Amino acid sequence: MQETVIEPTRIKPQANAAQEASARSQQTIKPTTSKDTSAMKSNRSPSEIAESVTKTVGKPLADNAKLSMRDVCVHYDQKQAVYDVNLDIAENQVVALIGPSGCGKSTFLRCMNRMNDTIDICRVSGSIQLDGMDIYDSKLDVVPLRARVGMVFQKPNPFPKSIYDNVAYGPRIHGLVNRRTDLDEIVESSLRRAGLWEEVKDRLASPGTGLSGGQQQRLCIARTIAVSPEVILMDEPCSALDPIATAKIEELIAELSQNFTIAIVTHSMQQAARVSNRTAYFHLGRLIEVNETEKVFTNPDHELTESYITGRFG
Ligand SMILES: Nc1ncnc2c1ncn2[C@@H]1O[C@H](COP(=O)(O)OP(=O)(O)OP(=O)(O)O)[C@@H](O)[C@H]1O
Ligand SMILES: [Mg+2]
């Protein structure tokens, strides 16, 4: 069999975004599994296999966990969306959450900063700890939690405010600064880290909504990092962006992972391979497999993962 292997190398921050984007469009990922896949094929359907999974294969747990999820279940009313998930996300690592549409990626991601609290019918059980602290403790204030665990959404959602005020919003409401010069500094450094400063430094008073989609998404990332979060959750942050803007965000993720812990949901296996250290594969609300990203995409442990990455369903 002719095999093409894409090394899931991390994006080099200095790489030229346009070249990267063009090079990536040529990439495909093909597993180089040595398994006899025909022998693995069971007569059961993917949903039957998923429903019988009681234990995640691979290495779902990690040393130096920043976030520890144990036996996490999520229900929307009577309907269960996430089943007994155990997963650690290690400090300063990027974990990609992948899997077919409706498998619970966004639901599970939203558990990590209690965003599901905003959905009336949603119930979360199990335990989620951030640095050993139970984030579902009834006494916990979710506002500072969400500053520690920030979120970037699928669709860029700048506030209807100026570019400056978008970034200054968090530091202001969290009372992080007293002086205007300190706020100016945070706004500039956040925009610089988000790779947007040079493009907007002369129009900080213009509306954030007037930026291009890719710029808006970087503005949202600047807004998130302005409050110095420890963890950044990203739910398909590039799905509304073109390849050049996507390349810029991916470079940014690689850079941010030096200081932040990141969980990213993506439908792009190439993206997961490029930006993440570990990949978690979900199917019908079950966490099927977690392994080093390279392993997941070249020699996965579970037949469902293999079927998914080879495009047998999705
Ligand atoms: N607000 C909600 N109310 C009721 N059910 C919901 C809600 N949000 C999600 N669900 C259900 O929970 C399950 C998981 O949905 P979720 O959005 O987490 O999947 P996903 O993996 O993120 O899918 P996609 O890749 O399409 O974004 C689905 O069956 C979905 O219909
Ligand atoms: Mg989703």
UniProtKB/TrEMBL annotation:
Organism equals: Marinagarivorans cellulosilyticus
**Record's superkingdom?**
Bacteria
Entries under InterPro entries matching the protein:
AAA+_ATPase, ABC_transporter-like_ATP-bd, ABC_transporter-like_CS, P-loop_NTPase, PstB-like
SMART domains, per the entry = AAA (SM00382)
Q: What NCBIfam families does the annotation carry?
A: 3a0107s01c2
Q: Which CDD domains match?
A: ABC_PstB_phosphate_transporter
Where do Polar residues bias regions lie?
Answer: 16-46
Per the record, GO CC terms? membrane
> Keywords for this entry?
ATP-binding, Nucleotide-binding, Phosphate transport, Transport
> GO biological process: what's one of them?
phosphate ion transmembrane transport
Pfam family for this entry, one: ABC_tran
> Region annotation Disordered: residue ranges?
1-53
Official protein name in the record: Phosphate transport system ATP-binding protein
